[in-house]
Amino acid sequence: MPASPFSLSRRGRRASRFLGLALALASVAAFAADPAEGDPLAPAMAGEYALQAGKLDEAARWYLDAARAAPGDAVLAERATRIALLAKDDARAAAALKLWRASTERSPAMRNAEATLALRRKDERAAFRELQILMRGERGQAPDKDGWRYALLALDAGSGDPKLTGRLLGRLIDSIPDELNAWLAFGEFSQQLQRNDLSEQIVARVVAKFPDEPAVALLRASQLREAGKEDEARKVLAALLESPRGSPELVYAVAREYSELGDHVRAAEVIARGPQNERSYTLRAAYLAQADDKPGVGRVYDELKRDSAAPDPQRRLLLGQIAEFIERHDEALEWYASVPGGPQRWQARLRSATVLHKLKRGEEAFARLRELQADADAEDETRRDAYLLEAELHKDDGKLDAELDSFARGLAAFPDDVQLLYARALMWERRDDIPRAEADFRTILATDADDVNALNALGYTLADRTERYQEALELISRAIAAQPDSAAIIDSYGWVLYRLGRNEEALTELRRAYTKQKDAEIAAHVAEVLWVLGQKDEARRFFEESRKIDPENRSLKRAIEKTGVVLPPLPAKPAA
Fold it and tell me: TM spans, by residue (predicted)?
């Protein structure tokens, strides 16, 4: 089924290239003039440049040298510790941590590093001691108000070993503070670990402590769903909808839970209960689209149409999108043409080209896009998107030369545009032309050396499609230094470790990525590494998880072909 115009987008973030260097220089400036202590400036700068180059092992070495040259500098010692942990260099992390301890009083951040390092060493006793202090405080002292957050971060860092992490989490349940947010966070984390036993314990406690909190009931419903107790989860959700503390946001949250249960139609019905606005109509249509319930989407369309006399741009755009989805293409064109102005007008013009293409009126579709590309009144972003859409439609038609021509003309109009270069790089990768894909990714990086998406994409491409594994590792390391908690980047990091033959380390990272994001490609990567390590029963479970999420995933298909695993046939889809 073609992508719905109601799909949700993921959020991202960028890191400043020079922030770390500025912090390092500010920290060591006071020591640079003191020959008795050595000169930390040079190694700190070398460490920062190594970090920017993705050479984490070198960065860890240089920063430790800088910290040793400036004893008593807590900021520099902390940075040396963090970079060594990021580089998975436990020996240097321990040395830097010793300098950090000697330079200042113990803080929650320091104890977080202590616990993380202990988890890396699989020293359960030491890890528990630090986590317990973070949660409860030292004898005679109250815990830091954010101590539980630092403890949770350390557990997350160790989640690549779910057995060890699960044991520690079980021992810490009695130490969770009487704070709703803390209990909710630990409950969600237990679900990420797929430890239904721990999740059940935590949820039972939080329900007893906060019986009237809607957020607690939502956590309970989620825990029951994860445990396969779907009927019980539905009862909790039904009771929530009758709660006198109900609010629009609660209704939307309940709808999301029904959707997670696979009942997208019920999710739409929940939202239909209250007052309607653009958001509610959009979500109802999106849920029904997920259920492939075109008659249901049609009813939303008819309801929305009755109140559309005023020339509201957002509503008319939405009506066009819904008409497009239910294949009332002529009506969709009318709605798009009637959008009176504002940014919605440009979106409508783009969508109308898509509709014309669906109607097999390709010449009109491409002519409309050319008009938009040449429209001086349109914003640059809209004109750029017209080239991207033109390329996409040519790809759907199988006209590869025309697709390439669209990118060429787009880049002539918008030289070195990141979105166009990124899309063209993916096109080259899809065509197995890795040198050209690399060239486009590197053009992006020549303009912005810290573009995390390009760093990760190029690194993953080199790891997956070439044997330039060390180079791939450096690129992905730069990305992970900027966004250490990104599931996609952790997955890339684990994958390049696997390609380097560091299978146990790879499995740790890939498991951690999967706890953060249940994704078909990540599951396929976990499955392949497990298979190579001889853990074939668990590998089959991950292969089936991946296939359940997306049976057409390219990484899944390649992993099945490489391993030769035989999976049971997929259950037949129910008749429409």
Answer: none
Question: How much helix, strand and coil, in percent to the nearest 5, is found in the chain?
Answer: 75, 0, 25
Token couple for 248: 């629009």
The rounded distance, in Å, linking the Cα atoms of 43 and 33 is 14
DSSP string for residues in 495-516: HHHHHTT-HHHHHHHHHHHHHH
Residues 322 and 301: beta-carbon distance below 8 Å? yes
Which three-class secondary structure state does DSSP give residue 69?
helix
pTM for this structure? 0.82
- C-alpha 574/C-alpha 204 separation (Å) is 36
Nearest to 67 by CA among 98, 45, 90, 99: 99
Cα distance from N-terminal residue to C-terminal residue, the chain: 14
Rounded to the nearest angstrom, the gap between the alpha carbon of residue 359 and the centroid of all alpha carbons in its chain is 35
| Chain length of the chain | 576
The HSE-up count of residue 550 (CA atoms within 13 Å, CB side) is 14
- Report the alpha-carbon distance of residue 89 to residue 51 in Å, rounded: 14
Taking only Cα atoms into account, the Rg of the chain, rounded to an integer number of angstroms, comes to 27
Alpha carbon distance 516, 489 (integer Å): 11
Q: Are the C-beta atoms of 216 and 207 separated by less than 8 Å?
A: yes
Residue 135 has pLDDT above 70, yes or no: yes
Rounded-to-integer distance, Cα 117 and Cα 36, Å: 31
Q: pLDDT band at 342, cuts 50/70/90?
A: confident
Distances (CA, A) of 438 to 17, 347, 422, 428, 441: 22, 31, 10, 9, 5
Task: Give pLDDT, residue 34.
Answer: 44
| Token pair of 53 as six digits | 């180059």
Superfamily classification of domain 308-415:
Tetratricopeptide repeat domain (1.25.40.10)
Contacts of 570 (CB under 8 A, 6+ apart): 547, 551
Judge whether 290 and 264 are in contact, CB under 8 Å: yes
What's the CA gap between 490 and 488, in Å, rounded?
Answer: 6
The tokens describing 284, both together, are 């109802």
pLDDT for 247: 79
Helix (H) or strand (E) holding 474, with range, is: helix 469-482
Summarize pLDDT for 49-62 with one digit per residue, the tens.
Answer: 999 888 999 999 99
DSSP 341: S
pLDDT at position 24: 46
Distance, in Å, from the CA atom of 114 to the CA atom of 126, rounded to the nearest integer, reads: 8
> What residue spans define the domains of the chain?
308-415
Q: Quick one: angle between helices 469-482 and 452-465, nearest 10?
A: 150
- What is the residue type of 422? Y
